[in-house]
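To assess whether the prediction recovers the assembly geometry, we first specified each molecular entity separately, as shown.
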Amino acid sequence: MYIKEDNIFSRSKKGKKGYTILEENASLSLFDKYKDELATFTSNEEPNLPELSEPDVIRHFVRLSNMNYNVDLGFYPLGSCTMKYNPKINEEVASLDGFKELHPEQPDYTVQGALRIMHELATYLAIISGMDAITLEPAAGAHGELTGIKIIKKYHEKNGEKRKYILIPDSAHGTNPASTQLAGYTAKTIKSNDLGMIDIEALQKHLNEEVAGLMVTNPNTLGIFEKDIKQIADMVHAKGALMYMDGANLNALLGYIRPADLGFDVLHFNLHKTFSTPHGGGGPGSGAIGVKAYLKEFLPGYEILKENGRYVKRRHGKNSIGKILAFMGHFTVMVRAYAYIRMIGREHLREIAENAVINANYLKKLVKDAGYKVPYDSITMHEFVASAMQIKKKYGIKALDIAKRLLDFGFHAPTVYFPLIVHEALMIEPTETESKETLEAFAKALKEILKEAEENPEVLKSAPHNTPVGRLNDAYAVKHLRLKYEEKDER
Ligand SMILES: *Cc1c(COP(=O)(O)O)cnc(C)c1O
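The predicted structure of the complete assembly is given in tokenized form:
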């Protein structure tokens, strides 16, 4: 459905309003009334605000929301992002007044319920991962990486060692090298072998006493489980370096494998992915991290303890890396993760992984049958990466054109051009919450798109056609960033 929606300022009419003020104040505009307060943080000019009635405002925003694609509307095969359906019970629980109206500086005795949730959630995450200590403080996955790498750094420094490098496979998420650099290390790339796993010889070549750690996503972003991970962990530990796990793909392992047992010393969770919080567009999330016992002293912020039946916060000691966030993390994301884990129950968590893996393998088969190539094609975990390289060579149709055309079929696009080691990548993660029918409909759309590539490639090159906004010039948008709307932006 195409709806044209004007900028809210262009709908403004002098004197329209969505409020009534009492008689005795009627001579004052709201601005006059609060002029003194406003003057402390604004200029003394009347702010340029649109004037509208309440229905004008509501309808404007509801119309805008209708233009948006979302996981409550349809399938979101966005590889690496674990865009599962988020149960509505999470939202109900997270919006209870007792949670949503807390202040982070309330005394402990007034927030016992909240502290209990944090304490128990940390316990569940420890059980799930096999790690000995957890912090819920990091604000998202990438922030968890930064926290984890800082812990690794502090550990080496305490041992009187100045190491320089973090090794990262070439299939890694871009946040891995970014966090590494931010923490003060240099990232070194380890290439993958023909099976899409870490090349042991390449690793051996780079491994020495200057290496602080190896950062691994397992299963990796090709959706492949790093089978040699225990051997790799032994090699890394033998050089005094530590093992970091990017746990963004934990959805694939839940209840089956504990990262601690694979030899990892530190991992981050993406609570907003694995444990179901609506996410995208940068947050809010939660990048809780887990560490082995010998790294606990370096954790940031507070630990939440249960003492004599009461919950108390205790600051980590003198070797802590310090605070990494103003307060204690994104609390309502924790509430959602807690509700989700409690709702599913310990016995059934593994069914999440089971169904995520079955769905990914089934969809991979359908996508291959539809005529697409999957370059790294061993058993898939939670996601797989198809390539449009052959289609590009044959018909001049790129992964981007296919992704854009999928929008016309009512699907969100998959992740494209990532991971970098697959050319014209289409990275697809169905998650456990999609039905067989949805997966089949998606594969059918891909098949039709391939037919269009052959018979009518122009329709693909100019797609999407049925969305509120057509094909954007994304390169232009990056180079000429302008956040303010102007009339001439109308297409
Ligand atoms: C999503 C993701 C991250 C980053 O997590 P954010 O919560 O988006 O910061 C890191 N690594 C992988 C593999 C991811 O999929």
